[in-house]
Design brief:
Elements lengths: L1 H10 L1 H20 L6 E5 L4 E5 L16 E6 L3 H19 L3 E3 L2 H10 L1 H4 L6 H7 L9 H6 L14 H5 L18 H4 L3 H11 L22 H4 L3 H17 L24 H17 L6 E5 L5 H9 L4 E6 L2 H13 L6 E5 L15 E5 L10 H11 L6 E8 L5 H6 L3 H5 L23 H11 L5 E7 L2 H29 L1 H4 L4 H26 L4 E8 L13
Parallel strand pairs: 1-3, 5-6, 5-8, 6-7, 8-9
Antiparallel strand pairs: 1-2, 3-4, 9-11, 10-11
């Protein structure tokens, strides 16, 4: 069927495109009339639409009212067809391809969320229902791409290398949720580091930056002090050793790994709030795991070595066997450990957790795994927990797993629908490149219940949950910090790395290469904002689960006050 219909669609492209786009515009703007909270302004070459609450004489886009206000500028009528045929996924693709501009993606998502009941009928629109039958014709979403003359999806699917991650991560190179002293203080009372990065981001607004002005937004209370630092004298010792560990990341022996970093106000020594927050999170996990001198630790998901280096540099006699499927991560983690003089205590293995050697059975005092579980896949969760149970010492083992979760009420829809993250965003977990599979396109976000049920089943009850915490709200600022750096350093750090990594597509100094780079930039900006609003509104969580063995009285009781 697909082979028969595709030539017809190609031949009738011009005939079908314009009336369908016009029909989609009418359908979408009719639906948007239901917006009751906040305001949405849409500019097209022919019209300016205003939906929702009117702006008061004292309010404007430069000085918005308390309710969210967002502004869209439609550059191509293809936008309407994508929106009606594929909903939020269609919007994300239209944004990536420059078919629509948005002055503030965060505000746009807030408008949509505030009116989700009214806008829910978009999922039941005629075009969407027709789109549901497209896979049965063997055409999938290609019908929309055909009708809109979409460019091939090239740069949007490219992974990014170590050098590109260095462009937006803090110096510790931790790519997971941080823990800040206070939630969203960068929005209420920006620190010098946040102000500097915000001003740099604002300088890029003319090229499509999603946020035009800071807003005050209070989303929670301060983090308990017990999350920030270990208790008593051990805390003082760890603070001192943490400073030593931070310096290890910048030794001359590893200088070539950081040569491109600009000396911006938010990355100066001792002034990076993100770096401090990442180290606070790592220390928190170390404390929850109760890692002691002489312990042997298994880490599933190496990242770039920040956890393993902090453990071995701050706790005497410890050793870490850390697993990754990324050759680039393994290379950099080994280089950092060697530069820190820890090569004999940090052993980086290019190894799947399911293929651990038999000699490791019951060999580890502790297991830690930070935001790797999203890459496991639904069918392997019980296997994942079974392997942890197998590797831990049978009487005194303790483990801590941190993972992104989805609320129970959203699970059915999440499993049914394809969203932006699952289709477009690669490498948002611990294996950024050279992994055996695309992480989110083939990945799976569990609910907390799913995590705990599979833990019990996979370990046959031998792993006993000791504590569960949700640090998800801290992810909103973590993502903002990454986005500020990404935008501020894009031209000087990320573009050169892209050109080097993909010379055939992005290496030329021409309009085609620049177009591909722009698609890549827009995809990542959309990803940052899309996830930020998800964590802000608790549509996503980030749970830290601590577990031990029944009868392990020596573990104690680590309560956060």
């Amino acid at each position: 069927m697909a082979a028969l219909l595709r030539p017809v669609l190609n031949a009738s492209d011009a005939f079908l495109k314009h009336p369908l786009c016009a029909l989609a515009e009418t359908a979408a703007t009719t639906l948007f009339k239901a917006i009751a909270h906040g305001a949405l302004i849409i500019h097209t070459p022919q019209h300016t639409y205003h939906f929702g609450q009117p702006l008061t004489p004292h309010a404007s886009l430069a000085h918005p009212p308390r309710a969210p206000v967002a502004e869209l500028t439609v550059r191509s009528p293809n936008f309407w067809l994508r929106l009606c045929a594929m909903g939020d996924l269609g919007f994300s693709e239209a944004y990536m391809y420059g078919e629509v501009e948005c002055n503030d993606l965060i505000n746009l998502f807030m408008v949509f969320l505030a009116n989700q009941e009214q806008l829910g009928t978009l999922e039941n629109s005629l075009l969407t229902r027709l789109g549901a039958y497209i896979p049965q014709l063997g055409l999938t979403a290609n019908i929309v791409n055909t009708l809109t003359n979409a460019r091939k999806n090239i740069s949007a699917h490219y992974d990014i290398s170590n050098a590109m991650f260095m462009g937006f991560l803090s110096k510790d190179m931790t790519y997971s949720c941080a823990i800040f002293p206070e939630l969203d203080s960068d929005l209420r009372d920006p620190s010098p580091s946040s102000s500097a990065s915000a001003s740099l981001s604002a300088a890029t607004s003319s090229s499509g930056s999603p946020r035009s002005s800071p807003r005050a937004l209070h989303t929670g209370t301060s983090t308990p002090s017990t999350l920030a630092d270990p208790e008593g004298g051990v805390g003082d010792t760890l603070k001192e050793l943490q400073g030593s560990a931070l310096r290890l990341f910048h030794l001359d022996g590893a200088a070539h790994l950081h040569h491109h970093r600009p000396h911006t106000p938010f990355s100066a020594e001792g002034e990076d709030a993100l770096e401090d927050a990442q180290m606070r999170k790592l220390r928190h996990i170390i404390r929850k795991a109760d890692i002691r001198p002489g312990h042997r630790v298994l880490e599933i998901g190496s990242g770039w070595g920040s956890m393993s280096i902090l453990i071995t540099s701050s706790i005497p006699g410890t050793t870490v066997d850390t697993l990754t499927l990324s050759t680039q991560q393994a290379e950099l983690a080994r280089a950092r450990a060697a530069a820190a003089g820890l090569a004999d205590r940090v052993r980086v293995h290019l190894l799947d957790y399911r293929a651990m050697p038999a000699a490791w059975a019951g060999a580890f005092d502790r297991v830690v795994s930070v935001e790797m579980i999203e890459a496991v896949g639904q069918e392997y969760f019980e296997t994942y927990w079974a392997k942890i149970d197998w590797a831990l010492k049978p009487d005194t083992g303790v483990g801590v797993v941190q993972g992104i979760t989805i609320p129970e009420a959203r699970f059915e829809k999440y499993m049914r629908d394809l969203d932006f993250i699952r289709k477009w965003v690669r490498s948002v977990s611990v294996f950024p490149v050279n992994a055996t599979a695309d992480l989110f396109p083939g990945g799976f976000l569990p609910t907390l219940t799913f995590m705990l049920d599979t833990l019990a089943k996979g370990s046959k009850g031998r792993l006993v949950v000791d504590a569960v915490e949700n640090i998800g709200p801290h992810y909103a600022r973590t993502l903002r910090e990454w986005r500020r750096r990404f935008e501020a350093r894009f031209e000087e750090a990320i573009v050169p790395a892209l050109r080097k990594e993909y010379p055939a597509v992005m290496g030329a100094d021409d309009a085609t290469a620049r177009e591909q780079i722009e698609v890549f930039r827009r995809k990542w900006i959309y990803y940052y904002c899309y996830c930020e609003i998800g964590f802000t509104t608790r549509k996503l969580g980030d749970h830290i689960v601590t577990f031990t063995r029944e009868g392990n009285a020596g573990y104690g009781c680590h309560v956060s006050e």
